[in-house]
């Protein structure tokens, strides 16, 4: 029989036999790559002995020879075959059922989770695009302002034009006055 359970949950396994006068029962676990591992031995008088650190992982309830074994806090390490063996002196009698436990690690995402993830992703994309556009528009506006306030000038000629435009409105406005005065001295 196969049992599927989610991680962190528990699962109950029946461990019983129809043969009477048994001395005790062993429960074993074997995964795909290892030898069988004894989890516990339950004696007919009610005494229970665990192997390794399975005391906190396995609990046993019921009356001998019909026991209910509970595997607690399941993880991927619990994926294995589980079975019981009853003993009477040197004779081993397998339990009625061999169990295969499969811990389901892949949970399907719910529709609501997909919708929330899509909405958040879309919102992040819109914010990202707005930030990029704002930066680009800001750069363009800054360049435009710089162009309006900083016009190129022909420094010497511009100064001369401003200085002499009020007094002389002739074609000689852009002529250097010192040059004119020197030129006037040289005339014969």
UniProtKB/TrEMBL annotation:
<dbReference type="InterPro" id="IPR013783">
    <property type="entry name" value="Ig-like_fold"/>
</dbReference>
<dbReference type="InterPro" id="IPR039090">
    <property type="entry name" value="CD7"/>
</dbReference>
<dbReference type="InterPro" id="IPR013106">
    <property type="entry name" value="Ig_V-set"/>
</dbReference>
<keyword id="KW-0812">Transmembrane</keyword>
<dbReference type="InterPro" id="IPR036179">
    <property type="entry name" value="Ig-like_dom_sf"/>
</dbReference>
<dbReference type="GO" id="GO:0002250">
    <property type="term" value="P:adaptive immune response"/>
</dbReference>
<keyword id="KW-0472">Membrane</keyword>
<feature type="transmembrane region" description="Helical">
    <location>
        <begin position="114"/>
        <end position="137"/>
    </location>
</feature>
<dbReference type="Pfam" id="PF07686">
    <property type="entry name" value="V-set"/>
</dbReference>
<dbReference type="GO" id="GO:0038023">
    <property type="term" value="F:signaling receptor activity"/>
</dbReference>
<dbReference type="GO" id="GO:0016020">
    <property type="term" value="C:membrane"/>
</dbReference>
<protein>
    <recommendedName>
        <fullName>Immunoglobulin V-set domain-containing protein</fullName>
    </recommendedName>
</protein>
<feature type="domain" description="Immunoglobulin V-set">
    <location>
        <begin position="3"/>
        <end position="100"/>
    </location>
</feature>
<keyword id="KW-1133">Transmembrane helix</keyword>
């Amino acid at each position: 029989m196969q049992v599927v359970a989610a991680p962190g949950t528990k699962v109950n396994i029946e461990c019983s036999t129809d043969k009477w006068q048994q001395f005790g029962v062993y429960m074993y676990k074997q995964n795909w790559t290892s030898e069988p591992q004894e989890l516990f031995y339950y004696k007919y008088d009610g005494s229970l002995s665990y192997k390794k650190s399975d005391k906190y992982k396995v609990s046993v309830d019921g009356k001998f020879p019909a026991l209910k074994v509970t595997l607690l806090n399941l993880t991927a390490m619990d994926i294995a075959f589980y079975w019981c063996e009853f003993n009477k002196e040197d004779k081993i009698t397998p339990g009625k059922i061999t169990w295969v436990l499969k811990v389901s690690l892949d949970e399907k995402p719910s529709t609501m989770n997909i919708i929330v993830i899509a909405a958040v992703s879309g919102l992040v994309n819109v914010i990202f695009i707005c930030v990029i556009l704002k930066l680009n528009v800001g750069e363009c506006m800054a360049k435009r302002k710089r162009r309006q306030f900083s016009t190129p000038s022909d420094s010497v000629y511009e100064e001369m034009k401003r200085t002499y435009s009020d007094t002389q409105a002739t074609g000689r406005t852009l002529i250097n006055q010192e040059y004119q005065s020197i030129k006037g001295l040289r005339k014969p």
